[in-house]
Design a protein that fits this description.
Length: 167
């Protein structure tokens, strides 16, 4: 019921090859995460907590020492929050998700295609979605266009992956 974690990019790619699927490119991931809401910060709109209700699993309370009592510290089940407009769960928060691209700071400046897949080798692989450790005091990367990165050999308790079908 929870996302698979402690998965490196290399582990995720091995699974994809075995299962006949792929990691999404950053553009595919962002399009899917938006759920049809093109200009919104989050998969559900522009307000982080509409009517005061959490819509994703991020750190609650004062980070890093004081989580809100009664709130989970760690992953939550995949369907703990409402899905986005495409029926996808937890595209914001819960765990970082590996993408196929290498990470480069100029990603958003690439305009030659609708899916600017970055194959230029680098030291880091792209991640999207933020995690349960994100808190607005230092990391608000649970927004749709936000990006993260890590070395492809890294595996953490707040990193997982999502796959796309191959055509």
């Amino acid at each position: 019921d929870h996302p698979v974690v402690h998965v490196s990019w290399h582990d995720a790619i091995a699974y994809c090859r075995w299962a006949g699927v792929a990691l999404p490119t950053e553009a595919q991931w962002e399009n899917a995460a938006r759920g049809g809401l093109v200009d919104c910060r989050y998969p559900w709109g522009n307000e982080f907590q509409p009517e005061g209700a959490p819509r994703c699993n991020t750190w609650r309370g004062r980070f890093p020492d004081a989580p809100d009592t009664g709130w989970n510290v760690g992953t939550v089940p995949a369907d703990a929050f409402e899905p986005n407009g495409f029926g996808l769960y937890n595209t914001s928060g819960n765990v970082w998700e590996w993408c196929a691209d290498w990470f480069h700071a100029d990603y958003h400046r690439k305009t030659e295609s609708i899916d600017p897949f970055d194959e230029r080798p680098g030291d880091l692989r792209s991640q999207r979605g933020g995690s349960f450790l994100c808190h607005d005091s230092y990391c608000n990367r649970y927004r749709n266009p936000s990006r993260g990165a890590n070395s492809p050999a890294s595996a953490t308790s707040h990193t997982g992956f999502r796959v796309v079908a191959l055509r």
